[in-house]
Specification:
The chain is an alpha/beta fold. It folds into 2 domains: 173 residues, Aspartate Aminotransferase, domain 1; 250 residues, Type I PLP-dependent aspartate aminotransferase-like (Major domain) (Aspartate Aminotransferase, domain 2, 3-Layer(aba) Sandwich), CATH 3.40.640.10. The chain has 16 helices and 14 strands. Helix 7 links the parallel strand 5 and strand 6. Helix 1 crosses helix 14, helix 2 runs antiparallel to helix 11 and helix 8 crosses helix 9. The longest helix is centred in the last third of the chain and has 20 residues. The structure holds ligand F0G. Ligand F0G binds next to helix 4 and helix 5.
Length: 454
């Protein structure tokens, strides 16, 4: 069949409140043109993030009811631990309330001032946790990963020559090598199994531990199955297990590829490090059999991990993104190619060339999408990255807008609606104005800054 359907039926629904353009213009102005400040019930299609926004299955809601809330030794923890180990066979599985809490545990223990941690591309919270220790977070994606219009099967790959030279020249500063699958900041792009193995081998040759940020591991495995020679006939589970078999540990946000609304974990093979992590966990998150989560959350994750590796789901998931990207591309809207696993990225700088980067073309586009159709997307560009620690400003490397797709939430007609709204925005794009910031905090300004139209 040509039509790839949503491989689920809908049993429980959340009504969407429809709004008018006049209403949205007023609401957005009152929010200082910052979409983070909108109330979510004023949003028609919410593509701000794919994190924590998944629809849980009936089996997950059932699992919530058998969650055991004992402080120590709850069966929920052991079900969670078994489900993780079934896919990622690390010796120690340490729950945490979300991905950044796992990162905080790891980098508090392994990083110190002056250190350097290379990655294909660190996610912002990973970078934040590394920098908070006084260490440097180094991004070394392959060159193709930095060119939005270029098609490449594994644009998330790490530049292995750059990794080799940084290990040779600065090895004394490096406590670990990281790999993010898929590469969120680079457009949700996958990393090949070959690249994961080669990066892990280089780390090992220099006796450095190799950690994977595995937030979107199942989407990454699906791309490996589709695109990597020799992987086509292999079960997703085997591919997932291969990705993690060569790592020394991982950090995870269960808010992505575990279909959960909250949760995460740190996994480690090193016994001594795991003991230190558990001690820190007790201090900051909770006892090691719950780590800042309720027992019911652990059961929802355990069930979600069984569902996420379903090939019918992954086929639909990846196809529904590429469907939107292909239609935008056909309309002449510049998108990051190929489409990523969890999001469609629009190149706002190329789309709105009349708006210079310091007038925030990405922000102008997100505002226009909300006004035209109540769609909420996220600027990933000069607003997010343009302010330097000394207060000066420079254009971000790119000005992208991310349309992140919540898992199992929206249908084909929602996708068609998104395309139609962008068609309307494109028809009037020359009339879109740049923006200026009228109020901003000293850091992480994209969450709270306020804007005015120029
Ligand atoms: N690593 C990656 C690759 C991520 O995308 C995220 C979160 C995290 C770590 C942190 O996990 O949110 O559970 O603390 N990304 C979300 C996003 C917020 O919208 O891309 P968390």
């Amino acid at each position: 069949m040509k039509t790839i359907i949503e491989p689920f039926r809908i049993k429980s629904v959340e009504p969407i409140r429809m709004t008018t353009r006049a209403e949205r213009e007023r609401l957005l102005k009152a929010a200082g043109y910052n979409l983070f400040k909108l109330h979510s019930d004023d949003v028609i299609i919410d593509l701000l993030t794919d994190s924590g926004t998944s629809a849980m299955s009936s089996a997950q809601w059932g699992a919530v009811m058998i969650g055991d809330e004992s402080y120590a030794g709850a069966p929920s923890f052991y079900r969670f631990e078994a489900a993780v180990k079934d896919l990622m066979d690390f010796r120690h599985i340490i729950p945490a309330h979300q991905g950044r809490a796992a990162e905080h545990l790891l980098f508090t223990l392994i990083a110190k001032t002056g250190d350097l941690i290379p990655s294909n591309t660190h996610f912002d919270t990973t970078r934040g946790n590394i920098e908070a220790m006084g260490a440097e977070a180094l991004d070394i994606p392959i060159a193709e990963g930095r060119v939005p219009s270029l098609d490449h099967p594994f644009k998330g790959n790490m530049d292995l020559a750059a990794l080799k030279s940084v290990l040779e020249e600065q090895g004394h500063r490096i406590p670990a090598v990281m790999m993010t699958i898929t590469n969120n900041a680079g457009g949700g792009q996958p990393v090949s199994l070959e690249n994961i193995r080669a990066a892990a081998a280089l780390a090992k040759a220099h006796r450095k531990p190799f950690y994977i940020d595995g937030c979107r591991f199942a989407e990454n495995a699906w791309f490996i199955k589709l695109r990597e020679p020799g992987q086509q006939d292999r079960p997703i589970k085997d591919i997932v297990r291969d990705c993690f078999a060569i790592a020394d540990g991982m950090t995870m946000s269960a808010k992505k590829d575990a279909f959960a609304n909250i949760g995460g974990w740190l996994a480690l093979n090193d016994d001594a490090l795991a003991e230190r992590a558990r001690t820190l966990l007790i201090q900051t998150e909770g006892f090691p059999t719950y780590g800042g989560l309720a027992g019911r959350d652990l059961d929802a994750i355990a069930q979600g991990l069984k569902e996420i590796i379903d090939e019918d789901y992954l086929r639909y998931r990846v196809r529904s993104n590429s469907y939107i990207a292909e239609r935008l591309d056909a309309m002449g809207i510049p998108v990051v190619k190929p489409a990523g696993g969890h999001a469609v990225f629009i190149d706002a700088r190329a789309f709105l060339p009349h708006i210079p980067p310091l007038q925030y073309p990405g922000q102008a586009l997100t505002c226009a999408m909300y006004e035209a159709g109540g769609i909420r997307a996220c600027e990933i560009g000069t607003v997010m990255f343009g302010r330097k620690p000394d207060g000066t400003e420079a254009p971000g490397a790119m000005d992208l807008v991310r349309l992140a797709m919540p898992r199992r939430v929206y249908t084909q007609s929602h996708a068609d609606y998104v395309v139609e709204v962008l068609e309307e925005v494109a028809a009037a794009k020359n009339s879109l104005q740049g923006m200026r910031i009228i109020k901003e905090p000293p850091m992480m300004r994209h969450f709270t800054a306020e804007f005015a139209k120029l």
